[in-house]
Each structure stands twice: as structure tokens, then as C-alpha cells.
Amino acid sequence: MNLLEVHELCKYFDLSGGLLGRALNGRSILKAVDHVSFSIPEGKTLGLVGESGCGKSTTARLVACLIPPTSGKVQMEGRDILSLGGKETRKLRRYVQMVFQDPYGSLNPRMKIMDIIGRPLTIHEGLRGKKRAQEVEMLLDRVGLLAEYSDRYPHELSGGQRQRVAIARALSMRPRLVIADEPVSALDLSVQAQILNLFKKVQRELKLTMLFISHDLNVVQYIADSVAVMYAGNIMEMGSVQQVFQNPLHPYTKGLLAANISLGVPNQGSYRIAGEVSLPINPVGCRLESRCPIRVSRCKTSEPSLSEKRPGQQVACHEI
Amino acid sequence: MFSIPGNMKGEMEAPLLDIQNLRVELLLRRGILTAVDDVSFRLREKESLGIVGETGCGKSMIALSIMGLVPSPPGRASGRILFEGVDLIRKKERELRRIRGREIAIIFQEPLTALNPAFIIGEQVAECYRVHFGHSKRTAREGAEHILDLVRVPSPKQVMKLYPHELSGGMRQRVMIAIALACQPKLLIADEPTTALDVTVQAQILELLEELREKMKLAMIFISHNLGVVAHLCDRIAVMYAGALVEVTDVESLLQPLHPYTLGLLDAMPLPEHRDEYLKALPGNICDLIYPPSGCKFHPRCFKAQEICAQERPGLEMKPLDHAVACFFPVYHEPS
User: Fold this and answer.
1) Using CB atoms, which residue from B55, B279, B280 is nearest to A188?
2) In chain A, what residues touch B232 (CB-CB under 8 Å)?
3) I need a surface site. Which of A152, A168, B187, B243 has the fewest CB within 10 A?
């Protein structure tokens, strides 16, 4: 059973710059997320990978109802969460929690850890005083922090400890879905391993469903069950981690894997993607066209759609 | 008690760079922060050394002190940095300027802050030729065009007329490399040059650096937190922890590390074959650099630590040939 289903989700930004700009230069629309569909079965993790500007964070924000989509549907257990009313949305929000990249920016510097984790408990469950303190203590224990940390401020903690607090805050609402947007990118290798272990542990204990966003292929390969590779607002390839990483079909996935230089992982040959990402402003045809090593003439005009090329492995490419 | 790790094969010829007991201290209000703590190493001509370590371990401070760019105050560098036999630490700013950029060049992580936003690319590249060689405007421009072509900037003539913000991240880093290599330095220091870039662009830049190093016979110090990138590009690797070198080794031996910290870093890497297990994460956090632990700074996090580790600091010693480690109980000595 899929906990989360996303259908044809789009988010466009109008960059025309008002009437005058539109009159002078015509409409320019940045298609940050363009017809993205995926689903996550209950208790599983979907990894979303891609380079900067590919729309992975925008997708996360859309799913978390932090920004309204241009079009599309997001369903949790069959219920469309975008069309709910204010009260219903608020209720549902507690089941979708987010962990952000920068644990320095995502914790209020003027609040003690006790209040950072306890605030949602007061708002959603009306917990106060001793009961709330007990609950906070339990959450701190769950993420591997001593109870005495509840009296401290964020600036007294290291990056890894702050990320633990952010995770405890997300878990305080007993969420069904946790969206983690580059949660380990700001951390050093040794701390990153601690936090990845923590994600793995809480996911096992609480049977969480996760949408895990990262630009680091090794991290996604380690933590996720299935993976979606995004490029310039489109999903290029999607499938189980084993399939996509061992038998990539899309030229972009191949290029990404070949560029991933990592110790102990055999390099996948010298498949090179030339050039750099360009923003998908008024895109026509395949977004990778200008960089693609196997492009043909129709890639310029027609946009390939995601279709199943191997059982369970979807690819958006004309030439596969 | 400090033996100086260098490549044995290179011991005969004088090293290009010979750093002896380098110490960089920052005088802060809270106390004295030792950013680089008694670091010694040598670099031969055409050799590439990778320095890896986590945030705050002092790797960038080594780069800055070689360039004479440690801000002073609050910084204070001591020890010896011998470049072709000349001690850079004792040089005056004016003399340093002749070496900096000409003999030793540096590439920084963030090309957008390293490039001047108010000048076009052409002027910034040509400046090297005018300052260091006294070329005329015209020859300098020709030189700039040539070097931009060498780092594979497409249509250099047009790019020279652009401002830094008009270029993509990868293109900016190419321009930075062009500026660094314009004077044909003997030593290139690259301080996390690809960290701000996307992986596909990172691969392009690394390929370019590799090729140019070969072509221009450069010695290189490559600083990164990414073990994979360093292993890919360098002949030797130095691992730093809390300001000190803990292990210096050939790339081939890196996968059989001697220091428990290096082993910890390798174990912490998420690899697909460990999917079903927890990663072996190092416990705790990086130590306070103002009040570091006594003895070996790594001992509170070390699984092999014994009493002596808290009392004495281990020196960097050659264990097998070409493999130096600063540890009383290197990993291959299994405790009985």
C-alpha cells in the first residue's frame, strides 16, 4: 500500500517581471517541477537525487504543503492533501514532518532545546509542564542526546547534535512521512555516519516512510529503497536502488554515476556529460538535449515521458 | 623526535617545498586556538599531495600559511616553510608578493568570492601577466586568451568581456584555474576547488586539473574533505585531525590505514554493500581546539586508546617504508 502518491505535480515560476517585462521579452516561465509523479510504499524510503537546481527541494516543499503547486495532486493514503480545508490541513501537517539541510538555520536560536522540541507537543497535544518535559526527554533519548541538553540553546551544540534535535522535533509529532532535505550535506563524514545511522534506526523502530533528498549518490544508495533521478524539473529515471545504480539506463544517470568519484566504489568508466545545468525556462524537448551524448534530432522538439523500460525501472528517454 | 615524512625515492633531490614544524595559532578572546600543530612534510617537484580532514582540522590554514595569507592578527605562524630552500615565513610582504601568484598559486573553493565582481574576466586574467611579467596591455590580453583556451573556456574572446556573475560555476572555476596557471607556477595549491560544484562539473574540473598538471609539470597540494576525490587525483595523502598530521601514505596504502582515525573515516563512508547494517561511526565530535585533550588529541574517540595516549603525544613516525603514522597503537598491532 502506498502511503504517498504524487501525480503530475508541477510548480512554475513566472519570471517575466510584470506587464512591461512580458511585453518586451515575452513570457518566461521557469518550470522548476514539471509533471513529476512518484509513490512511496508505507515504511519505505524514496531517494531523490540530482544536481543543484534540479527541483528536488521544490518537490519536497510541495509535498510538505509549504508552497502551493501550480497543478497536480499529492495523496496520502488516498486522500488529496492539497484540496483539504485549513483545519484539516493543519491536522494532516503533523503527519508530514521535515528535516532541513542546515541545522544552524532551522532551529530558533532564542529557544532552548526543550522548547524547540516541546512547542509542537503543546500546540498539537496540549502537553505542558512535567508531562511535556518527560516526552521531550524521551525524544532526546531516542535520538541519542542526554536529557541535560534540553536546557541548552542551539548555539551550544555541534552541527551533528543540532541535526539530532531537528530529527527529535520531527519525531515529536509521530509522523507517518518524514521529508529529509539534504539532512547530512552540511555535516562532516564521521558525523554524517552517526546521523545516517540515526535515520536508519528511527525508521526501523517507528516504521517511518521517508522521502530522502540528497545530491550524494552514496548516501542515497545506502539509505533508500528506491530512487528517482531528477534533472531540470523532470524525473529522468526511477526504480529500485539496485536497478538504477547497477544498471542505469538513462544517459544522465550514467553520467552522474561515472562522475561520482568515491573511494572503495569502482568507478563506472569515463561516461562524461558535457557542459552544465541550465535552468528550465520555457523548455522545449528533452531538458538534457544540449548535454546528452546520445541525442538525436527529435530530442530537441519532443519531450520524452517516463515509461517502464525494464520491470520496475522507468526511464524518460527517446533513445532507450 | 619528529621524523619528517617524505617520499623516500625523492630524498635524494632537494624537495620543492619543505615544511618543518609549522604551527599556526589564532589569538582569540577565548584563548589561543592552535589551528595547525607541528606539521612537517615535504613535496617534491611534480608531486601531488592530498590533504584530507574534516571541518576545522587546519587543512586550509596550511594552504594560507604557505601563501603567507594567514591574517595577522589574530593569526601567528611559526616554524619553517622552505620553498626551493627559501623560508617563506621570514619573508617580508613585498618579497612574498613576487613569489605569490608567480611561483606558488592557489585556487579557492568559491570562485564567485575569489573573483572581483567589478572587473571583466579578461582584465582579471591579464592582470597576472602585467603584474608579474610587466607585459603591455596587448600582450597581456593575448596571454589571457591563450590561457583561457588552455583551460577549455569556450570562445575565450567573448568570455573575456563578461563579468564573473555572467558565468556558470564551472566556468568561473576554469577562469580561476587560468588565473592561477597564467604565470606557470611550480606549485599549485587547490583548496576544495570542486566542493561548490555539481558532480558532473566536478568530474570535468578534476579531469582538467589532472591534464594540466601533467602538461605544465606542476607540483600540487590538493585540499579536500572528500577522500575519493583526493585518492583519484593525488600520489600521496596526508590525513589531518585537529591541526596535526596523523597519517601520511601512498594512495595505494590508504585502504589499509594504520591510524584509527583514518580507519574511522573509511568505515564511516556509506557503501552499498553495508546497506543492511549500521555504519561504524566514530563516537563523539571533533575536539575543542582551544582546550584540546591531553596527549593524542584523538584519544577520547579512539577505540584503541590506552593510558599513554592521554599522557603523551605520538610523533609522526615511519612504520613501513613510505607510510607514516602518529599513533602508539597503529591498527595493525592487534591488542593482545
Assistant:
1) B55
2) 261
3) A152
**Alpha-carbon distance B203 to nearest alpha carbon in chain A (angstroms):** 5
* Residue A105 CB neighbours (<10 A): 11
Interchain proximity B264–A190, CB inside 8 Å: yes
Per the CB < 8 Å rule, is B281 touching A263? no
What CATH fold (topology level) applies to the domain B8-103+185-325?
Rossmann fold (3.40.50)
**CB proximity A279 to B under 8 Å:** no
Query: For residue B26, what are the contacts with CB-CB under 8 A and spacing of at least 6?
Result: B32, B33, B35, B74, B75, B76
pLDDT at res. A268 = 56
Q: Is the pLDDT of residue A269 over 80?
A: no
Which domains are seen in chain A, by residue range?
A: 2-95+175-315 (3.40.50.300)
Instruction: Give yes or no for a contact between A248 and A75, defined as CB atoms under 8 angstroms apart.
Output: no
pLDDT of residue B5: 53
Name the residue in chain A with its Cα closest to that of B273.
A222
Predicted confidence band of residue B13 (pLDDT cuts 50, 70, 90): low
Q: Which amino acid is at A215?
A: H
Q: Would the pTM count as exceeding 0.80?
A: yes
**Residues B123-136 pLDDT 10s:** 999 999 999 999 99
List C-alpha distances in Å: A22 to A27, B59, B234. Answer: 5, 50, 52
- Report the C-alpha gap between A270 and B201 in whole angstroms: 13
Tell me the pLDDT tens digit for each residue of B284-311: 888 888 999 999 999 999 999 999 999 9
The pLDDT of residue A133 is above 90: yes
User: In what order do the strands lie in the sheet containing B86-87?
Assistant: B31-43, B17-28, B75-83, B86-87
Query: Does the distance separating the beta carbons of A158 and B198 come in below 8 Å?
Result: no
ipTM above 0.95, yes or no: no
Q: Indicate yes or no: CB of B278 within 8 angstroms of CB of A191.
A: no
Q: What cell numbers appear for A118 in the block? A: 516541546
Please name the residue of chain A whose CA is at the shortest distance from the CA of residue B265: A190
Q: Where are the domains of chain B?
A: 8-103+185-325
According to the model, what pLDDT value does residue B32 have?
Answer: 93
Residue-level pLDDT at B3 = 45
How is the beta sheet containing B104-107 ordered, strand by strand?
B104-107, B187-191, B219-224, B48-52, B236-241, B244-250, B324-325, B317-318
